[in-house]
Design goal:
Elements (H helix, E strand, L loop, with lengths): L7 H31 L6 E11 L9 E8 L2 E6 L5 E5 L3 E10 L2 E13 L5 E7 L3 H19 L7
Antiparallel strand pairs: 1-2, 1-7, 2-3, 3-4, 5-6, 6-7
């Protein structure tokens, strides 16, 4: 009668393993791209499946794209999986890293990591990322990039 008549579990199992294989291939492709882009540079933290909600200075509502976020010793780097969007924030331009639930005046209904920074034109801007384990990301960025920037600032002596 039917090819899969009594074997419905087989269809479900094949679909499940197909999804797992797809996710593995996407992660492998992303890791290969990271290796080609950054070579031997040390990646301190990496998260896949990160949602990016845009920059505060961009006109319009928050937009959402999915990709990966990297913490390097001197910067934060985000790359969208489908749009090819790349965002690089030098560590010495970051002002503040904190937890939030809204971006661009819009309630996101989820916990996000927000990063305030200065652009190349010295304008203050903000981005929001939905990452796994936001407190760990906030602590890692503060420890790696913010404290390093504070230590690099010259201490002015009184005249």
């Amino acid at each position: 009668m039917s090819l899969f008549g009594n074997n419905g579990w087989l269809v479900i199992a094949l679909a499940f393993f197909g999804i797992i294989l797809y996710i593995s291939l996407v992660r492998w492709r992303d890791r290969r791209w990271i290796k080609e882009k950054f070579g031997d540079r040390r990646v301190l933290a990496m998260s896949f499946g990160v949602n990016y909600f845009g920059r505060a200075m961009e006109p319009g509502r928050s937009r959402k794209s999915s990709g990966f976020l990297l913490l390097l010793p001197d910067r934060l780097f985000y790359r969208s999986r489908l749009r090819g969007l790349e965002l690089e924030i030098p560590g010495d331009r970051i002002v503040r890293v904190y937890h939030g639930k809204s971006h661009k005046g819009e309630n996101l209904h989820q916990s996000v990591v927000k990063v305030d920074f200065y652009t190349q034109k010295d304008e203050k801007d903000c981005v929001a990322f939905k990452v796994p384990y936001p407190p760990q990301w906030i602590q890692a960025i503060e420890t790696t990039l913010l404290r390093k920037a504070e230590q690099a600032e010259p201490v002015s002596s009184p005249p």
